[in-house]
Amino acid sequence: MSYRLMTSLAASMLAASALSAAPVSAPQTAPAAPAALPSTGFDAGLSKAEIEALSAEAFYWGLNIAGFYELRHVYTQMEGSPVFHGVNRLQANDKLMDASARFATTINASTLYSGGAFDVSQEPIVVEAPAVTDKRYWSTQALDQNANWFLMVGSQFTGNGAQRYLIVGPHWRGAIPAGFRSTEIVRATSNSFMLTTRVAVTTRDEADMAGARKVVRGVAVAPLSLWSANGGKVPPLAEQPAVPGRYRTFPRMRQIVDYGRTMTATDFLQLLSLSINDPSITRRTDSVKETATLARLSRLGLREGVLLDAARISPAEMAAAQAGFDAARRKAKQALEASLIDMNGWRLQSSLFYDDLDYVAKAGVDDVAWGTPVPYQSHSIAYVFQDSHGKPLDGNQRYTLTLDLANLPPVTEFWELPVYDSAGYFIPNPINRYSTTSYLLAHGAYTVRDNHVTFYLQPDKPTDPDKARNWLPTARGDTFQLAARFYGPKAPLVDGSYPMPRIEPAR
């Protein structure tokens, strides 16, 4: 089985920022720079085996935390880069993803995005969302460094009416503007978190795109002080200052932006050291397992009050740490594969048996898709890499995928069937088609016969006009894969009992 990195929230935030205009800088006091801390290495006397075991344990516990720290650095501290937009700003992207997007894999082509990194150490933030009157899917969700999704609002959660929320830090105390109801006040699980908005497109014509852009631009966020100074309303993004973060860094952070592919074990351990010493990343205080884990990891220099320094790690120690890191990655992927549900040949990610304290399986999920929506209340995902005969999907061959209109995937919102090349990228094609959705099917975009719709997965456009309407392009000379997304999944897409149709070799 092959998985690729940088999906889900990481992809959506990069999509929102990389294709959007750079933020307008404005004078404002930036967060205070942290105080210097002494450096450290591994504890003296650790054996090779002990370093390997501890590095593996660090991988299981901290992979999502390290990714969080690195991605926050990209969004809030790499000034001059196309993805920088500062702290506490929600940047919208009003274009669908296509094959030109090579910064993230297994992205979708069915929603517009906005995203940002937020810090409520000093004051709360206000989130405002307009009424969505055309009944399209939208969601705004926030997660902390442990992939704990503490805010889920939108059409499938709280409906389509106009909404607003005040997000306060876990230890914040202060006066709240009198107009906020108790259900609008949300306590974050960490002072530092990510927030992303998804807005579905339907017919993809100009009117539809205009409606989707109105919604994604309408979801707005600002610190409480800016909201209050603007008369109790979030000011336009152009009027919000782009305040850079002042979080601790180490030199290689600019070289490991795609951390899943370029991060070494030493990079990873340094990111964890920075995270542990970052007061804005609020650690759990109610987990006996986490407390015991951190006590053991302190032998690698991962403890409060000191920063792990690569210069103080010997080549032999680095090699042992890398061996433990690599072994842990393999074991985590095996644990993830074991947790997937066989859904008629598709491999379904489900929260049915999710355990937040199963660090190994959770690391496997994080390695596939940083910030994945676990538990899968927002949407579940099913992968397929093989045809109905168990052979890899070959871009040189022709296949069909047939859906019964009387038994479509059961969702409350919509589903998407995107097609990717072997590396997880969209496949360039002359009609710029990268996926199909239930919205397009409902609007008559495809040929339907005998209450069934058949999609043709092949490298060349079919000569038959009816089949050409249902063409899903693949890449000649390469294998391909699908990662179906089910937004608002009903029970059969959670327990895997839905008979997802297999991909059949064409006759």
Report on the architecture of this protein.
The protein has 507 residues and is of the alpha+beta class. The chain has 3 domains: 38-83 and 246-336, no CATH class; 91-239, Sandwich (Immunoglobulin-like); 340-505, Domain of unknown function DUF1214, C-terminal domain (Jelly Rolls, Sandwich). The chain has helices at residues 8-18, 48-77, 206-218, 224-229, 259-262, 265-276, 288-297, 315-339, 359-368, 438-442, 465-469, and strands spanning 39-40, 91-93, 111-119, 125-129, 138-143, 149-154, 163-168, 185-187, 192-200, 220-223, 307-308, 341-343, 346-349, 379-384, 399-404, 411-421, 435-437, 452-458, 471-473, 480-489, 504-505. It has a 6-stranded antiparallel β-sheet with strand order 12-13-14-20-16-17. A hairpin with a 2-residue loop joins strand 12 and strand 13. Helix 2 (48-77) crosses helix 6 (265-276) and helix 8 packs across helix 9 (359-368). The longest helix has 30 residues, at 48-77.
Outline of the structure:
The chain has 507 residues and is an alpha+beta fold. The chain has helices at residues 8-18, 48-77, 206-218, 224-229, 259-262, 265-276, 288-297, 315-339, 359-368, 438-442, 465-469, and strands at 39-40, 91-93, 111-119, 125-129, 138-143, 149-154, 163-168, 185-187, 192-200, 220-223, 307-308, 341-343, 346-349, 379-384, 399-404, 411-421, 435-437, 452-458, 471-473, 480-489, 504-505.
